[in-house]
Automatic annotation (TrEMBL):
<feature type="domain" description="Chemoreceptor zinc-binding">
    <location>
        <begin position="120"/>
        <end position="185"/>
    </location>
</feature>
<dbReference type="InterPro" id="IPR025991">
    <property type="entry name" value="Chemoreceptor_zinc-bind_dom"/>
</dbReference>
<protein>
    <recommendedName>
        <fullName>Chemoreceptor zinc-binding domain-containing protein</fullName>
    </recommendedName>
</protein>
<dbReference type="Pfam" id="PF13682">
    <property type="entry name" value="CZB"/>
</dbReference>
Length: 222
C-alpha cells in the first residue's frame, strides 16, 4: 500500500508539473498575445494618426484650393476689367486715327503701309476682344477683305515697282488668309466654341506676322 501511495503521489506530482508547464505556457502565450495586441494597437494608432494628418492636410489643401479659386475669380474679374478698359482706349484711338487717315492729304506710300500694318494689328486684336465678349464684329465686314483700306490699296495700285515686287503678291495672299481665318474665328464664337475660336485667333496672329513681314519688305523699296 505504501508503494502504491508513493506511486500515486509521484504521478500526481508529475501531473501538477505538467499542469504548471501548461499554465506557464498559457501565461507566456497570453503575455505574447498582449504584446502583439499592444503592437497592433500601436500600429492602428499610428495609422489613425497618419490618416488624421492626411485628412487635415487634405482639408488644408481643399481650403487652399477654395482660396485659390476665389483669388482666381477676383484676378479674372480684374483682368477682364483691365482688358475692357484697354479695349475702350484702343478702339477710341483707332477711330480717331481712322478719321485722320481718311482726311489726310499727302501721305507717302510708306506712311500708308504703316497705317495698313496698324489696321490689321488692331483687326486681329479685335478677334480676341470678340472671344471675350468685349465687342461684336460684323461678319459681312470681316468677310470682305477687298473693302478694307489695304484691299482697296492693292486693287488700285499703279506703282510698277511695287506691283512687280515678290512681296506684293504675298501681301495679297496673307491679307486674304487673315480675313478668312477671322471669319472662321467668328463662326466658332457664334457656335460658342471658345477653344476653337482661340485656335483660329492664334492662327490669325501667325498669319498677321507673315503679312507684316511682307509689308515691311515693300516699305524698304518705297
Amino acid at each position: 500500500n505504501t508503494e502504491e501511495l508513493v506511486a500515486t503521489i509521484h504521478k500526481t506530482t508529475e501531473k501538477l508539473e505538467d499542469g504548471n508547464q501548461i499554465v506557464e505556457r498559457s501565461v507566456n502565450s497570453i503575455q505574447s498575445l498582449n504584446t502583439q495586441m499592444n503592437t497592433i494597437n500601436s500600429e492602428i494608432g499610428s495609422i489613425y494618426n497618419f490618416i488624421q494628418n492626411q485628412e487635415e492636410t487634405a482639408n488644408a489643401f481643399v481650403t487652399s484650393i477654395d482660396t485659390l479659386s476665389d483669388s482666381y475669380e477676383e484676378m479674372q474679374s480684374q483682368c477682364n476689367n483691365a482688358g475692357k478698359y484697354f479695349f475702350d482706349i484702343v478702339r477710341g484711338t483707332d477711330k480717331i486715327r481712322g478719321n485722320l487717315v481718311r482726311n489726310a492729304m499727302g501721305f507717302t506710300t510708306k506712311e500708308f503701309l504703316h497705317v495698313f500694318e496698324v489696321d490689321h494689328m488692331i483687326f486681329t486684336w479685335r478677334l480676341y476682344n470678340a472671344i471675350n465678349k468685349y465687342e461684336t464684329l460684323d461678319m459681312n465686314i470681316v468677310n470682305n477683305p477687298k473693302d478694307c483700306k489695304l484691299g482697296k490699296w492693292c486693287n488700285n495700285l499703279k506703282d510698277e515697282k511695287i506691283l512687280n515686287h515678290p512681296s506684293f503678291l504675298k501681301i495679297k495672299k496673307y491679307h486674304e488668309e487673315l480675313h478668312a481665318v477671322a471669319v472662321r474665328c467668328l463662326q466658332e464664337i457664334d457656335n460658342q466654341n471658345r477653344a476653337q475660336a482661340i485656335h483660329y485667333y492664334e492662327e490669325a496672329s501667325v498669319t498677321l506676322q507673315k503679312l507684316l513681314q511682307e509689308i515691311d519688305k515693300v516699305k524698304q523699296i518705297v
